[in-house]
Specification:
20% strand; 6-stranded mixed sheet; 329 residues; 3-stranded antiparallel sheet
Length: 329
Amino acid sequence: MPEPTATSSAPHEPASAGRASPGTAALGLEDPERTLRRLEWTVLRRLDGLLQGDYRTLFHGQGVDLAELREYTAEDDVRHIDWNVTARMDTPYVRTYHEDRELTAQFLLDLSPSVDFGTARREKGALLVDFVGVLARLLTRQGNRIGAVLYGDGVERVVPALRGRRQVLALLNDLARRRRLARARLTSLGALLEAGLRTLTRRSLVFVVSDFISTAGWEKPLGMLARRHEVLAIRLVDPRERELPDIGPVVLEDAETGEQLVVDTRDGAFRRRFADAARMREAALAATFARARVDVLTISTDDDLVPQIVRFAAERRRRARLRAGAVVA
């Protein structure tokens, strides 16, 4: 029996698992204003409390626009103290940046059919909308510009970077109006990344939001993008892409080609092969991101978005302190 591969359009998704019919809105039917208000009340307010309004590590994890490490003064914000360097030097140090000037952020959004899948609390596409809405609003609240490149059956639209809440609403509206694709060519993340390379003329913060289920060839443009910009990979996952439950015979369908396969999930050997293939794909993706020196936030359809972002911010803060300590040492 054939096994899922890293280059298939999905780990052969169940035809009935969380997929609406073609022609319906692909990423959610909520009005953009309602979506943004929901995110502001249920996600942003919680993040403000948990991160105490300090989102610097989300946006400056690799030291983009880092000006200096210097001794703390009474006028400094204590949240910017670098405790790792402080411990080494036995006196308080803070990390300062050439900014707080305007930051430009670009969302490279994979909206291919494999994103229209979810077996848990929501589809990966709905998760994409919530993540983009939250991060876009965080950025525009601080006066930054946001733009996007939308990829479905190829690159569909480039959204120029602008400021303000209206820009966030316009982007959410673009996502809400898209129609679910009945069929599409196999996803080429390389085309999406190359579009990002072409459209970004100044150093930017780039969010690549995808399930990273793609044909081969995207690894090189990811590395090129990371050398020029601050790149974060936001990986959308669903638990059924990692392991199958024992639920008897099911029809699995490739989200992009429409190819179908009948399997019996009572077959323990088949489930083990499926899980092994998923683990191999996880390892290959991790190696690719490590080579490109790109930090990865994996967000799952079965988990709350807030703790996932908080854990990611904490990990980036830890890595930033390690790097700073290495520089001072």
